[in-house]
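Q: Could you write out the predicted structure for this multi-component system? I'm mainly interested in how the pieces pack against one another.
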Amino acid sequence: MEPTLTLITLDLAGCFVFALSGGLVAVRKELDIFGVVVLACVTGLGGGFLRDMAIGATPVAALSDWRYLVVPMCAGLLTFFFHPALGRLGPLINVFDALGLGLFVIAGALKALDYGLSPLAAAIMGLATGVGGGVIRDVLAGLVPVILRRSVFYAIPGFAGASVVAFGLYFELPPDAVMAAAFVICVGWRLLAMWRHWEAPLPRGSASV
Amino acid sequence: MEPTLTLITLDLAGCFVFALSGGLVAVRKELDIFGVVVLACVTGLGGGFLRDMAIGATPVAALSDWRYLVVPMCAGLLTFFFHPALGRLGPLINVFDALGLGLFVIAGALKALDYGLSPLAAAIMGLATGVGGGVIRDVLAGLVPVILRRSVFYAIPGFAGASVVAFGLYFELPPDAVMAAAFVICVGWRLLAMWRHWEAPLPRGSASV
Amino acid sequence: MEPTLTLITLDLAGCFVFALSGGLVAVRKELDIFGVVVLACVTGLGGGFLRDMAIGATPVAALSDWRYLVVPMCAGLLTFFFHPALGRLGPLINVFDALGLGLFVIAGALKALDYGLSPLAAAIMGLATGVGGGVIRDVLAGLVPVILRRSVFYAIPGFAGASVVAFGLYFELPPDAVMAAAFVICVGWRLLAMWRHWEAPLPRGSASV
């Protein structure tokens, strides 16, 4: 499957936005300029690295296209120099973050199906692509990953979107409609969850164990 | 080597028990329902993922058999809804955890030998299979991995069991006897260590460095 | 490319020194003997594991040569029993650590080029080889990785050295001169940065985001 220019542009946009989020965490942790760039790159590329290593698509995709290396580096430098301005863009960043999640889970599920995985496995790989970078970012910064703490924002819409793609294509529904539906569900859910302050159920009772 | 139904059942049981341990850590960290399920899955599957990515057995095994995906998901949901009851089963869980360790190190060492690794490398991969999930669980939860802190419970019996399998099969001893011996050594050691409160030697003198 | 005995000796020396640094962190964290050995091995081998899994060189190199497994184990045991003496060797250890970084980034970039990666991707893989073990060490020990906090010591010289190798060989400059230059730049920079207390720029303004 030759990815179209549109798809690549969207994928790079997702990578850029995720890298910004990594750079902002690094600024908050008072890392220096190279620490900011490295954390930005790891966040932007981590999900795809994990997916490609797990399904055996090596060398991993980001290493064979220089744009995937340059885009998160630029995002890191931008964050380093202009983080106060980015802070004022908070709501806009959140929208981009939601778009990035949608793009990454769809791209991840598609690639996993391409490598012959079952729909359920492809849905899980889609989720891993969408949230892997953020998990690595938080672990490196010494935080419990936000994806585990606020699953309504990440795990639920990510898995929903990835499942729509994986099962929709498996049952040979029209690809364009399936991908559009997955994108709307994932991004819409993410934005609604943030806007309406949705929360997932917490365990009842004390953690007696 | 076609794994028998017995072997698969035992392997799934190990995955289930490890996933329970991941779910319990998630409950203690007050994660929500999806956080619990994700941490359960990562704990149950992480060791095998690491092993398969390192030896090049991709797509990793857990992604090509839906049972390996459904079992830890169910374990996570069970933990979420019934964690107080699971807490009362504490001693029983510990026994299952020991059985899981035994099964995973044996399965890990066997698979590594199958991929042409040397006995020492296969023993190390067996240990990685047995403890990898727990390491990822603890890192995600912001803890220093228990396998590093209480090595008599995990690293020592795991490496012992994996070494018996790896070197026993390398020197062409009877496979069934080798695996039985490895299982008894690993699980027995783990249970004895817990029951008798064994401890491994600590560094002497202050950490002057 | 058949690695010469000299190259392998130097590579093992780098692995040994990195493993010492992992063992010392483990002693400081009061881990027991097996915890010290495991953290030493993970630190000495982690960078190469990451690189090989990302470029698809599996089974990863360390698993197919017993010396790469025995050397960090010995380093871990040495640290456990003689850590006060190692502490007095502090400055010497720092020199070895710098040499290890230089060797690892060169070896990493060479191997990545060998697997057909672009120069930029090879430079990044060289950096990952040089700092990956330390990142895993710090994450397991519950620390924010030192490579992110003190990038003048690690990320900058590592990336500089790896870039010299990757682009120098790509443009077909004489390999020996390229590698020598990369080694001098990387190790010299690292030692100068430590000796002169260099610091990389920090983000200006408060982290408003």
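A: Regarding packing and overall arrangement: Chain C is about 75% helix and 0% strand.
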